[in-house]
Each structure stands twice: as C-alpha cells, then as structure tokens.
Amino acid sequence: MSATEAVRTRPARRSLRWMRFAATITGILVLLFGLPWWTVVGADARWPVAVAVTGTVLFAGGLLAFPVLMYLGHGRRHRDRAAATGDTILGVIWVLFSWALLGNVAKLVLALAGVADPVRSRIVAAAVAGVSAVLVVWGYVEAMRVPRIRRVDIVLPRLDAALDGLRVVLLTDTHYGPINRARWSARMVAAVNGLDADIVCHTGDIADGSVAERRAQAAPLGEIKARLARTYVTGNHEYFGQAQGWLDHMRELGWAPLHNRHIVVERDGARLVVAGVDDATAGGSGVTGHKADHAAALAGAPGEVPVVLLAHQPKQVRDAVAHGVDLQLSGHTHGGQIWPFHYLVRLDQPVVQGLSRHGTGTQLYTSRGSGFWGPPLRIFAPSEISVLTLRVPA
Q1: Among candidate residues 256, 363, 272, the one with its CA nearest the CA of residue 320
Q2: What is the mean pLDDT of each run of 10 residues along the chain (394 residues)?
Q3: What residues pair up with 256 in beta bridges, in sequence order?
Q4: Class assignment of domain 147-391?
Q5: What residues form DSSP beta bridges with 308?
Q6: Pair 358, 350: CB distance under 8 Å
Q7: What is the residue extent of each domain of the chain?
Q8: pTM of the predicted model, to two decimals?
C-alpha cells in the first residue's frame, strides 16, 4: 500500500467505526424505547385511537429528544437543565424497559391461562405503567433524601487494642451535578457530624463538573468534623472533568487528599495507616502524574501497622491483596442504583455492596454511595452514610 493510499484509508476506517458506533447506539435506543411502547401502547391492546396516538407521541418525543439533551447536557456545552432532563428520561425509560420485560413474561403466563387479547395486553400494559410510575416517584424520593446510616463492625486481626472501636465514616459518590443539591449536602454533613467520627473518608466521584461549577454544593464538606483525619481520593468522574482541581479544592476545605500516598493516625500510642490511590481509570485519563500506584501509596508505611486503603472501585482490591492491605474502602457501584442494573455492575466489579473478603487477609467494604449519578432515582438500592467500627478479634 502506498503512502497516499494509507492516508485515504485512515479516514475511511474512522468513518466506518463512527457509523458502527452510531448504528449501535441507535439500535439500543430503539430497543430501550420501543419495547415499553409496544408493551404499554402497542397494537395488541387495541386502545382507543386517542390513547394510542398520545402514547406514541410521548415515546417518540422521548426517543428523539433524549440524545439531543444528553449531547447538550453532557457534551462540551454542559447545560445543566438539559443534562437533568435527559438524565430523568433515561431513568424513567430504564424503569419502563425493565418492567416491560417482566410484563411480557407475564403476558405469556396469561396466554397459557386462557386470557385473550385485548384484555391480556391491557392488563399487562396497566400493570407495567402503574408499577413504573410508583417506582419512579418512590425512587426520586429515595434519591433526594439524606442517606440512611448503615453501621457495620469490621474485625481487623492486626488492630491494636487501643484502636478497638475506632469509628470510620465513609462517604462516596456524592456526584454534585446538574441538580443543585447544596441543601442536601448541608443536611448530609449535619448527619455525619452527629456520628462522632474518628476518621471521615470520601472515596471519590465527588462531583460531575469543575470546582467552579459545583463549588456551592461541595462547600458543606468543609464543615465535616473528625477527631483524627478527613481523607479523600479521586473517582473516575473526576477524570471526566478536573481531577487535580478537586484534589486541590478538598485540601483547601481542610481534607487530606491521598493522591497515591498515606498518612498515619494515632490514638493512645496505637497507629493506623490510612492510604489512598487514584482511580483505576486515572492512568489512561491523560492527566499528568495520575495513576493508581499502590507501591507509592504505601512507601515508607510501618510494616507492622494495619492499613486501611481508599480506592474508588472495588476491582482495585486485586492490587490491595497483592500489597497486604487489611481493609479497602470503595464506592463506584451505587449498589446498582436502579434495579436491576446491579446485574450489569456485577459484570465489571467483584462486589456490588457490603463487606467481603479477598485473598487471605484483605477485606473490602463497598458502599452503595451517598448520592446518585445521572437519573435522580434510587430503586431497591438506597443511598448510605457508612459507619464502620473497627474491632480487634474477640
């Protein structure tokens, strides 16, 4: 192949890749909106013309508006109203799609039971629409409420008796974003300050956007109280925007950013290493000096002292095991956020939520997150403020 032919081939390949991507996205959107439309509005139900036309217009309007809103809201323009509207449409259509799948299974059962159309399809359509509406309203209330307090005792074999009962409060995935949640942030901070924390940790995805865009929402974090330390690491969403900016801002708010480093906290002569690493995506983000580096984070740490590691994604526990970490604290999964999305999360992460064991001596606590990303909904995956009490073995 000549140099000229090679130059001509590269744009053609890029164009082909773009067309494949566009076709894939279009197919997904048609399925995502099409199945609920067919289940709720489709021909088998034989709704009156006015009902069928109204339903079709709503689904078609959502299908056409959704990609435009997402582009305006999450593209270069960062228009918050567009992002909030597009995110809400995504959440509603995901709920409808999930229950439409179940509805079509129910339709088969009704058919076997001898229930004929249009009655069969109308029963399923009404059930899918009704259940989805209730779940969307309930999910919105769950997303916007102050997170529940979730208390867990964690036994660390190497913990000194003087540190028995040490209280670690974990926040993660606050995702300050297009919906202004400054008041929610203040109420969350008030809840944290009522927990008498020794250490408060934030394991990333603090916001979607720059410090300048989300400063007011994050401001209450500066009021959080902890006797020994307030520590923070980056999540993957910081690398969509301004990772170093958030590290610097959290330092200004009085937190200790653990950018591949550790600190040693002490109580009554007993010590605990609190370390942190960048998110797993940091190395490929293009941000200079950022990548998950467990060796750097633990360099110089006293070997006989237990280590609590902050790492945004649960799958980073593999490196934690290799470096002899006692306990890793993570978020990222949101517990799935909107059922049944947790099944897809499980394909990427070893754990969706809760306490788990890895290797011979490493434990992992995965929070469901304190906020939400994208759709302002939480369905069967409540948010949490985690209170982790460290214990010595009985």
Answers
A1: 363
A2: 53 74 89 96 90 96 96 89 97 98 95 94 96 98 98 97 98 97 98 98 96 97 98 96 94 98 97 98 93 97 95 98 98 97 96 97 98 97 98 94
A3: 231
A4: alpha beta
A5: 274, 327
A6: yes
A7: 3-143, 147-391
A8: 0.92
